[in-house]
Amino acid sequence: MSSPPPTMNDLKTSAQEQLEYMLTEDDDAPLLTADNEIKVEARECMKKLFTRFNSLVESLLCESKESVSNAEKLQPFQSYLADLLWACQILAKLEIMRELVSHWVEASEHILKVLQLVSLEAAMLEMKLKVIEVTTKVSEAIGYGTVILPTAKRLHMVRIWLPHVRALKPLMDSSTNDVEDVLKMDGELWQSLESAFVSIILTLPSLDQAEILSDWLGNKDIRYPDLTEAIEVWCYRSKVANKRLAYLGGTHGMARML
Q1: What InterPro entries does this protein map onto (predicted)?
Q2: Rg from Cα positions in the chain
């Protein structure tokens, strides 16, 4: 998770692949045991990585739009995204995703502000997709209960990222043939992100769910993400809740009459 010079990128990638392999369980036992010492070291490295990433994000926000869209300026940003995506893989194997998830949620608003300064050229869109990959890993950890966050942070995650992916997906779908290969993204990833959003939304208070779902129904970009499942579950839960309230009200009334 360090940040060596670009000339050492190949060596860094090789080291990352080897470490991931040593932590992977297959037919044989993993070569490294995920003990407390390794977990502590991994957490510290992740914190340092995110501190450097945050510093870069803050510095980019101080630049002009023309400067930020410069490919050379964004190269470190892209490198950090690749490292964060790899960190997601390692921390998930070690079952210590909480810190990374919390840091990503807190930094989300500033990350999106940087993306808003970036042009829509193919190389820049590729970088935006890398952000979506990290966001998907974070959303899955939250949505499927791997990382438990307070309601306010879960709601913040949805309100920040849902409008962004809703606008970005049509851009990917309408990309020209010239950039098709660059922007080609596994459909399963979009599906994974959609499912994670549905799971997160269904953990929120009913009134917050209603607000998010009403906004989705009234938006022209309703094609993605598809929140139909969330609406169906919300309607079912609301109906059951109303029945219970009506039953309790009737029971209390009978008790008073007796």
Answers
A1: At3g05675-like
A2: 22
**Cα(196)–Cα(183) distance, rounded to whole angstroms?**
22
Maximum separation of any 2 CA atoms in the chain, in Å: 84
Global confidence as pTM? 0.83
DSSP-assigned letters across all residues of 85-112: HHHHHHHHHHT--HHHHHHHHHHHHHHH
What's the rounded Cα separation, in Å, for the pair 161 and 201? 12
Q: Which residue has the tokens 């490919």?
A: 71
Q: What is the dihedral of CA 148, 102, 116, 84, to 10 degrees?
A: -110
Q: Characterize 130-149 residue by residue with b for buried, 16 or more Cβ atoms within 10 angstroms of its Cβ, and e for exposed.
A: bbbbbbbbbbbbbbeeebeb
Structure token pair of residue 104: 């990503």
In this structure, what token pair is assigned to residue 242? 């109303």
Q: Say yes or no to pLDDT of 41 above 70.
A: yes
Q: Higher-confidence residue: 9 or 43?
A: 43
CA 38 to chain CA centroid, Å, is 25
**Res. 7: pLDDT tops 70:** no
Report residue 214's pLDDT band, with 50, 70 and 90 as the boundaries: very high
